[in-house]
Design goal:
It contains 19 helices and 13 strands. The chain is α/β, with parallel strands linked by helices and 428 residues long. The protein has a seven-stranded parallel beta sheet. Strands 10-9-8-11-12-13 form a six-stranded parallel beta sheet, with helices on both faces. α2 links the parallel β2 (32-37) and β3. The longest helix is centred in the last third of the chain and has 19 residues, at 331-349.
């Protein structure tokens, strides 16, 4: 097979990293692999070419035909699109051109946020990949009335498990540069500088723990300015002195040093995570995670971490503080959960685990004559093709605390298909 990976650009970003990993994985599996960056190039273009993947991006004006035309001329059998999921005018235009020019090609998507596209572009796909059981469940809710019924499976991100690992020496140097004492317990949060990716709750919980234990410190990387001027600035001076605010870390080596320096990764994001690359990177460095459940939003963090496996999960603010304090006080538990975290990522998300499933799924698309036949074939191959409400309740059960009433009511509301469509219309 000839497989074309389609992504917006080839610059930094979690989606771009995974598109790169998939495209390289296809090449390693023996397929002809190429990537189309329909909005521009970036540093990943060189990495892809070095690993035997052809790259189509627009060259300086007049230097070469349009990148999309060159990708079409490459004549792929399968087009694998990485997108946010819902209808988008720019991406939609690319999809329509691809479908019109390649009528015999199969089309699959990695739906990064599991949003429902109920327009013509959504119906172009033979198969939709979702990053977790939670993502597949909510997408099924939102596409309940779409006909013909679309086919989706759980297929998590393919992680390069060799890029992140415990690096005690680099971690110690990172702590020394920050001025963190050797005997301190360093909590940490690394994320994008987007307000939706953070919550003031993180600072409230840290302040409560730090008040009890003067050895507690907090590292934040990528903190949005709104929280810097708000929640952080309002901390008592003694506690604020123990918060280390780093604007940006460039490259895997710097990230690896930071993860290795942190004793507990503290994750509280208003929007939750559709997967959470920072979580798996931290876990591969044997840093346990405390994560807040967000059932009215993206909530894959509860699956990625696993309660009392790769860390601790909290349903509310009180439980989040309790979990931080429990790991602060118990270095042996931190060590056990850190080792469990790394093992969990390698067993569930490493390339050698995910790539064979990716290949089997794509081959199933090519071998199936209808959506129903594809669904049955995928079930026979052991893929998760449906997630029930009972499955979701089971995911939410083994965590600390109780989900706040507001979150429970909001979760029931936002997962109604008609409410979802109205909300997306208003957002547009």
């Amino acid at each position: 097979m000839r497989i074309l990976t389609v992504v917006d650009h080839l610059g930094p970003g979690g989606t771009q990293r995974v598109a790169q990993n998939y495209a390289v994985g296809y090449a390693r599996a023996g397929f002809a692999s190429a990537v189309l960056g329909h909005e521009g190039s970036g540093p990943r273009a060189e990495i892809l070419r070095e690993r035997g993947v052809e790259v189509f991006v627009d060259e300086p004006q007049g230097a070469a035909p349009d990148a999309l035309d060159r990708a079409v001329a490459w004549a792929p059998d399968v087009v694998h699109v990485h997108r946010e999921g819902d209808a988008h005018p720019v991406v939609g235009g690319v999809l329509r051109r691809l479908r019109a020019a390649l009528p015999q090609a199969s089309m699959v998507e990695t739906n990064v946020f599991s949003r429902a596209d109920v327009t013509d572009t959504g119906r172009m796909f033979d198969l939709h990949f979702h990053l977790s059981r939670w993502c597949l469940w909510k997408w099924q809710k939102w596409t309940r009335f779409v006909r013909p019924r679309p086919v989706g499976i759980v297929l998590p991100y393919l992680i390069d498990a060799e890029a992140f690992y415990p690096d005690p020496e680099a971690g110690a140097a990172f702590r020394a540069d920050l001025g963190v004492p050797d005997d301190a317990v360093l909590f940490g949060r690394i994320g994008q500088a987007m307000e939706a990716k953070w919550m003031p709750l993180l600072f409230d919980a840290f302040a409560a723990v730090a008040e009890r234990d003067p050895r507690s410190h907090l590292l934040v990387v990528g903190l949005p300015e709104e929280l810097r001027q708000g929640a952080l600035a309002h901390l008592p001076e003694d506690i604020r002195r123990r918060v280390h605010d780093v604007t940006f870390l460039k490259g895997d080596a710097a990230l690896r040093a930071a993860y290795s320096a942190i004793d507990v990764f503290a994750h509280a994001a208003h929007k939750g995570e559709s997967f959470g690359m920072v979580l798996v990177e931290s876990m591969l460095c044997e840093t346990p995670v405390v994560a807040l459940s967000r059932p009215a939003h993206d909530n894959s963090q509860i699956e990625v971490v696993g309660h009392d496996v790769g860390g601790l999960l909290a349903a509310d603010a009180e439980a989040f503080e309790e979990a931080l304090d429990a790991l602060r006080a118990d270095p042996e538990r931190r060590r056990r959960l850190g080792q469990g975290a790394a093992q969990r990522v390698r067993e569930r998300y490493a390339g050698e685990r995910v790539l064979p499933d990716l290949v089997r799924a794509v081959e199933a698309v090519r071998a199936s004559s209808s959506p129903d036949a594809l669904r049955e074939r995928l079930r026979a191959l052991g893929f998760t093709t449906t997630v029930s409400d009972r499955d979701i309740r089971a995911l939410l059960a083994p965590i600390l605390g109780r989900t706040p009433v507001k979150q429970r009511l909001l979760s029931a509301l936002v997962h109604q298909p008609h409410v979802y469509r109205l909300w997306r219309w208003v957002r547009r």
